[in-house]
Amino acid sequence: MSAQSKVQVIIGSVRAGRLCPRIADWVTEIARARSSGLATEIVDLADFPLPMHDEPGIPALGHYAQPHTQAWSAKVAQAQGFVFVTPQYNWGYPASLKNALDHLHREWRGKAAVVVSYGGHGGGKCAVQLRQVLEGGLKMRVATTMPALELSEQAVRHGELDPQSAFGGHVEAVAQAFGELAELLAADPAAA
Amino acid sequence: MSAQSKVQVIIGSVRAGRLCPRIADWVTEIARARSSGLATEIVDLADFPLPMHDEPGIPALGHYAQPHTQAWSAKVAQAQGFVFVTPQYNWGYPASLKNALDHLHREWRGKAAVVVSYGGHGGGKCAVQLRQVLEGGLKMRVATTMPALELSEQAVRHGELDPQSAFGGHVEAVAQAFGELAELLAADPAAA
């Protein structure tokens, strides 16, 4: 890993009233405090709207017809590592994140990733499914530690959340995941 | 199960150039030939566009702000059983189908379902993930048999597919799944 390894922290939810940006901020603060050598940038999927119906080709072929897909491709191509901050919906990953992943192909391949999930029932089931997609489907290299944050009733129903106090017990797990991300990046010559 | 049990065959992909409608037709033909007593209707998700960002509340509360969500809710509420015809993308389910599932909540609860998946690598991994969402997340009752159809290279790359000849070996599995669906419907007093 060079001092220049770029890591994008992806805000995986685009829902109105989402908590994801606050959680992504909290995760990124931990990375900045603990993991020198990783240049983190928050990337909001809401800034990259990708309609589900307008790419005629399959992503594996890499020919993107739409400017929005091309913009997303160019963005993802800039980074060597990714932190997916994702809500758990109904035991799985949200459409917004899967849509963004499925729109591309070679841009993800071989790159390093961390999964941070959250939800009213935690996010562990979503994390396991997402890991399968990232590793099996997209051939990414995923950190073993996958922090899964349980939201309170107040957070789920009323959007009231102070990550610092709610998730204090998870700081070390997040730092650990970033440590593993740094090792994955160091192990890959292409990311240096 | 009464003679009136309504089953919606959901076209799970909305992608340009999708094969899903042809596969849904093929599946529905088998149901009509084999399973008397099930009133099947094909429902195309392309007819129910559901933006991922404009519902402020959580679906479990059942207050839908947008007319498109209300229309989708009314549609799903009409049926007692569902056949999800879904492509496998990167070992998982597509955003289009997950988005349609996640927009609602009580409309799915307790109802019967079949998963029919397809893809260049078959669809078995998608089917397992989707089953977890349907059973664990949405509390649906899912048929054991989940036909997973492998597409040829020609089908994946050029959209050339004649389901009748390509999937002849799966007719019995699809018929079996519909048989199980009929049993699940019969076992539920609410569906009678």
Give structural notes.
The structure is a homodimer of 192-residue chains. Chain A is an alpha/beta fold. Helices cover 39% and strands 17% of the residues of chain A. The first copy, chain A, is built from 7 helices and 6 strands; from the N terminus they run E-H-E-H-E-H-E-H-E-E-H-H-H. Chain A has helices at 20-34, 67-77, 95-102, 124-137, 153-158, 163-166, 171-187, and strands at 6-11, 39-44, 81-87, 112-119, 141-142, 148-150. In chain A, strands 1, 2, 3, 4, 5 and 6 form a 6-stranded parallel β-sheet that branches. In chain A, strand 4, helix 4 (124-137) and strand 5 (141-142) form a beta-alpha-beta unit. In chain A, helix 1 crosses helix 7. The model of chain A has no long low-confidence stretch (mean pLDDT 94). At the A-B interface, helix 3 and helix 4 of A face helix 3 and helix 4 of B.
Topology:
The structure is a homodimer of 192-residue chains.
Chain A lengths: L5 E6 L8 H15 L4 E6 L22 H11 L3 E7 L7 H8 L9 E8 L4 H14 L3 E2 L5 E3 L2 H6 L4 H4 L4 H17 L5
Parallel strand pairs in A: 1-2, 1-3, 3-4, 4-5, 4-6
Helix pairs in contact in A: 1-7
